[in-house]
Protein backbone atom coordinates (compact mmCIF):
# COMPACT_ATOMS: atom_id res chain seq x y z
CA UNK A 1 0.00 0.00 0.00
CA UNK A 2 1.46 3.36 -1.07
CA UNK A 3 0.13 6.61 0.31
CA UNK A 4 1.39 10.15 0.13
CA UNK A 5 2.57 11.51 3.47
CA UNK A 6 4.33 14.76 4.20
CA UNK A 7 7.41 14.85 6.43
CA UNK A 8 5.30 16.18 9.31
CA UNK A 9 2.69 13.46 8.85
CA UNK A 10 5.34 10.73 8.81
CA UNK A 11 7.00 11.99 11.99
CA UNK A 12 3.71 12.30 13.86
CA UNK A 13 2.61 8.83 12.76
CA UNK A 14 5.84 7.31 14.07
CA UNK A 15 5.36 9.14 17.37
CA UNK A 16 1.80 7.81 17.69
CA UNK A 17 2.98 4.31 16.80
CA UNK A 18 5.66 4.40 19.51
CA UNK A 19 3.20 5.64 22.13
CA UNK A 20 0.58 3.01 21.27
CA UNK A 21 1.78 -0.22 19.69
CA UNK A 22 5.24 0.39 21.12
CA UNK A 23 3.65 -0.17 24.53
CA UNK A 24 1.22 -2.86 23.38
CA UNK A 25 -1.70 -0.42 23.33
CA UNK A 26 -4.10 0.39 20.51
CA UNK A 27 -4.82 3.90 21.79
CA UNK A 28 -3.27 6.27 24.26
CA UNK A 29 -3.75 9.79 25.53
CA UNK A 30 -1.41 11.98 23.51
CA UNK A 31 -1.58 15.76 23.55
CA UNK A 32 -0.28 18.11 20.89
CA UNK A 33 2.31 19.33 23.40
CA UNK A 34 3.65 15.79 23.74
CA UNK A 35 3.85 15.45 19.97
CA UNK A 36 5.75 18.74 19.80
CA UNK A 37 8.31 17.36 22.27
CA UNK A 38 8.58 14.01 20.49
CA UNK A 39 8.86 15.34 16.93
CA UNK A 40 10.25 18.86 17.22
CA UNK A 41 7.42 20.13 15.01
CA UNK A 42 5.79 23.46 15.82
CA UNK A 43 2.53 23.19 17.73
CA UNK A 44 0.49 24.90 15.01
CA UNK A 45 1.81 22.39 12.46
CA UNK A 46 1.11 19.48 14.81
CA UNK A 47 -2.51 20.57 15.22
CA UNK A 48 -3.04 20.96 11.49
CA UNK A 49 -1.28 17.70 10.65
CA UNK A 50 -3.29 15.74 13.22
CA UNK A 51 -6.51 17.10 11.70
CA UNK A 52 -5.34 15.95 8.27
CA UNK A 53 -4.44 12.45 9.50
CA UNK A 54 -7.76 12.08 11.31
CA UNK A 55 -9.64 13.29 8.22
CA UNK A 56 -7.81 10.65 6.18
CA UNK A 57 -8.71 7.99 8.79
CA UNK A 58 -5.05 7.09 9.24
CA UNK A 59 -5.24 8.27 12.85
CA UNK A 60 -8.26 7.49 15.01
CA UNK A 61 -9.46 9.58 17.93
CA UNK A 62 -11.82 8.67 20.75
CA UNK A 63 -12.16 11.41 23.33
CA UNK A 64 -8.63 12.36 24.36
CA UNK A 65 -7.11 9.12 23.09
CA UNK A 66 -5.56 8.66 19.66
CA UNK A 67 -4.44 5.59 17.79
CA UNK A 68 -3.01 4.35 14.51
CA UNK A 69 -5.44 2.72 12.09
CA UNK A 70 -3.60 -0.35 10.79
CA UNK A 71 -6.35 -1.17 8.30
CA UNK A 72 -4.98 0.75 5.32
CA UNK A 73 -8.05 -0.12 3.24
CA UNK A 74 -9.91 2.44 5.35
CA UNK A 75 -7.40 5.22 4.67
CA UNK A 76 -8.62 8.09 2.53
CA UNK A 77 -6.97 10.66 0.32
CA UNK A 78 -8.07 14.23 0.87
CA UNK A 79 -9.90 15.87 -2.05
CA UNK A 80 -7.65 17.53 -4.57
CA UNK A 81 -7.47 21.31 -4.36
CA UNK A 82 -9.30 23.18 -7.12
CA UNK A 83 -8.56 26.76 -8.12
CA UNK A 84 -11.15 28.80 -10.01
CA UNK A 85 -9.59 31.53 -12.12
CA UNK A 86 -11.14 34.90 -12.96
CA UNK A 87 -12.04 33.63 -16.40
CA UNK A 88 -14.15 30.85 -14.90
CA UNK A 89 -11.75 28.02 -15.68
CA UNK A 90 -11.07 25.37 -13.06
CA UNK A 91 -7.56 24.11 -12.51
CA UNK A 92 -7.05 20.97 -10.44
CA UNK A 93 -3.96 19.28 -9.06
CA UNK A 94 -4.48 16.44 -11.53
CA UNK A 95 -3.20 18.64 -14.34
CA UNK A 96 -6.39 19.36 -16.26
CA UNK A 97 -8.33 22.53 -16.96
CA UNK A 98 -12.07 22.17 -17.43
CA UNK A 99 -14.00 24.96 -19.11
CA UNK A 100 -17.37 25.92 -17.66
CA UNK A 101 -18.60 27.05 -21.05
CA UNK A 102 -17.41 23.89 -22.73
CA UNK A 103 -19.34 21.28 -20.77
CA UNK A 104 -17.17 18.27 -20.09
CA UNK A 105 -14.36 19.29 -22.41
CA UNK A 106 -10.93 18.90 -20.79
CA UNK A 107 -7.38 19.30 -21.95
CA UNK A 108 -4.00 18.67 -20.43
CA UNK A 109 -1.97 21.59 -19.19
CA UNK A 110 1.58 21.87 -17.97
CA UNK A 111 2.46 21.67 -14.29
CA UNK A 112 3.92 25.18 -14.46
CA UNK A 113 0.52 26.46 -15.63
CA UNK A 114 -1.13 24.94 -12.57
CA UNK A 115 1.41 26.49 -10.25
CA UNK A 116 1.09 29.89 -11.88
CA UNK A 117 -2.63 30.04 -11.01
CA UNK A 118 -1.78 30.57 -7.35
CA UNK A 119 0.26 33.26 -5.71
CA UNK A 120 3.53 31.62 -4.68
CA UNK A 121 5.94 33.52 -2.43
CA UNK A 122 9.55 33.60 -3.65
CA UNK A 123 11.76 30.78 -2.46
CA UNK A 124 14.16 32.09 0.25
CA UNK A 125 17.23 30.18 -0.93
CA UNK A 126 19.73 31.72 1.45
CA UNK A 127 17.48 31.36 4.49
CA UNK A 128 16.89 27.68 3.70
CA UNK A 129 20.62 27.11 3.21
CA UNK A 130 21.33 28.85 6.52
CA UNK A 131 18.75 26.67 8.29
CA UNK A 132 20.32 23.57 6.73
CA UNK A 133 23.76 24.55 8.02
CA UNK A 134 22.46 25.28 11.51
CA UNK A 135 20.31 22.18 11.93
CA UNK A 136 22.24 19.65 9.83
CA UNK A 137 25.68 20.74 10.97
CA UNK A 138 26.96 17.17 10.64
CA UNK A 139 26.25 17.19 6.89
CA UNK A 140 28.35 18.75 4.08
CA UNK A 141 28.18 22.53 3.81
CA UNK A 142 26.82 24.20 0.71
CA UNK A 143 29.71 25.85 -1.12
CA UNK A 144 28.23 26.32 -4.59
CA UNK A 145 24.63 27.25 -5.36
CA UNK A 146 24.38 27.17 -9.14
CA UNK A 147 21.37 27.45 -11.43
CA UNK A 148 20.63 23.71 -11.36
CA UNK A 149 20.54 23.57 -7.58
CA UNK A 150 18.47 26.73 -7.42
CA UNK A 151 15.93 25.24 -9.82
CA UNK A 152 15.67 22.04 -7.76
CA UNK A 153 15.01 23.92 -4.54
CA UNK A 154 12.60 26.27 -6.28
CA UNK A 155 10.66 23.27 -7.62
CA UNK A 156 10.43 21.60 -4.20
CA UNK A 157 9.24 24.92 -2.75
CA UNK A 158 6.52 25.38 -5.36
CA UNK A 159 5.25 21.78 -5.42
CA UNK A 160 3.37 22.01 -2.14
CA UNK A 161 1.90 25.07 -0.43
CA UNK A 162 2.88 23.61 2.94
CA UNK A 163 6.53 23.85 1.92
CA UNK A 164 6.26 27.57 1.22
CA UNK A 165 7.19 28.26 4.81
CA UNK A 166 10.70 28.45 6.23
CA UNK A 167 9.54 26.68 9.39
CA UNK A 168 8.50 23.67 7.31
CA UNK A 169 12.05 23.37 6.02
CA UNK A 170 13.46 23.63 9.52
CA UNK A 171 11.16 20.78 10.59
CA UNK A 172 12.20 18.84 7.50
CA UNK A 173 15.89 19.26 8.30
CA UNK A 174 15.29 18.13 11.90
CA UNK A 175 13.56 15.08 10.48
CA UNK A 176 16.64 14.37 8.35
CA UNK A 177 18.90 14.49 11.43
CA UNK A 178 16.87 11.61 12.88
CA UNK A 179 17.94 9.34 10.01
CA UNK A 180 21.04 7.24 10.80
CA UNK A 181 21.62 6.60 7.10
CA UNK A 182 21.43 10.22 5.94
CA UNK A 183 23.70 11.43 8.74
CA UNK A 184 26.52 8.94 8.23
CA UNK A 185 25.76 6.65 11.16
CA UNK A 186 25.37 3.57 8.97
CA UNK A 187 28.49 2.00 7.53
CA UNK A 188 29.44 -1.19 5.73
CA UNK A 189 32.87 -2.82 5.34
CA UNK A 190 33.14 -1.87 1.66
CA UNK A 191 31.58 1.59 1.75
CA UNK A 192 32.14 4.82 3.63
CA UNK A 193 29.23 6.26 5.65
CA UNK A 194 26.92 8.36 3.50
CA UNK A 195 26.35 12.03 4.31
CA UNK A 196 23.44 13.69 2.53
CA UNK A 197 24.23 17.07 1.02
CA UNK A 198 21.52 19.66 0.45
CA UNK A 199 22.05 19.25 -3.28
CA UNK A 200 21.36 15.51 -2.96
CA UNK A 201 18.37 16.04 -0.67
CA UNK A 202 16.46 18.36 -3.02
CA UNK A 203 16.76 16.17 -6.11
CA UNK A 204 13.23 14.97 -6.99
CA UNK A 205 13.68 11.23 -6.42
CA UNK A 206 15.74 11.60 -3.24
CA UNK A 207 13.37 14.20 -1.81
CA UNK A 208 10.36 11.94 -2.42
CA UNK A 209 12.05 8.99 -0.70
CA UNK A 210 12.89 11.11 2.35
CA UNK A 211 9.30 12.35 2.57
CA UNK A 212 8.06 8.75 2.32
CA UNK A 213 10.30 7.72 5.22
CA UNK A 214 12.51 5.39 3.16
CA UNK A 215 15.64 6.33 5.09
CA UNK A 216 14.26 6.07 8.63
Describe this structure in words.
- By secondary structure, the chain is an alpha+beta fold.
- 41% of the residues lie in helices and 11% in strands.
- The protein is built from nine helices and seven strands, in the order αβααββββββαααααα.
- It has helices at residues 7-19, 32-39, 43-55, 111-116, 125-135, 147-159, 166-177, 198-201, 204-211, and strands spanning 27-29, 59-62, 65-68, 82-84, 90-92, 96-98, 106-108.
- It has a four-stranded antiparallel beta sheet, with no helix packed on it. It has a three-stranded antiparallel beta sheet with strand order 1-3-2.
- Helix 5 (125-135) packs parallel to helix 7.
- The longest helix has 13 residues, at 7-19.
- It is globular and about 50 Å long.
Number of strands: 7
For the largest beta-sheet, the strand count, sense and barrel status come to:
4 strands, antiparallel
Per the principal axes of the C-alpha atoms, what is the gross shape?
Answer: globular
**Major beta sheet, strand line-up:** 4-5-6-7
Assign the structural class, choosing from mainly alpha, mainly beta, alpha/beta, alpha+beta, or little secondary structure: alpha+beta
Helix segment count? Answer: 9
Taking pLDDT < 50 over at least 5 consecutive residues as the criterion, the unreliable ranges are 81-85, 89-118
Average pLDDT, rounded to a whole number, is 80
Amino acid sequence: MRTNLSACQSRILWAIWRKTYGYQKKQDWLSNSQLVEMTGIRKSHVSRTMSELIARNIVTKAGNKVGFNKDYTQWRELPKRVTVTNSGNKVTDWGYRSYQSGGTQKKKILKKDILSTESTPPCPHQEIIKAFHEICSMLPCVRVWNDTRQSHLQARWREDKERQDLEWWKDFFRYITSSPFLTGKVSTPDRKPFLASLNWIIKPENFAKIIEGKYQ
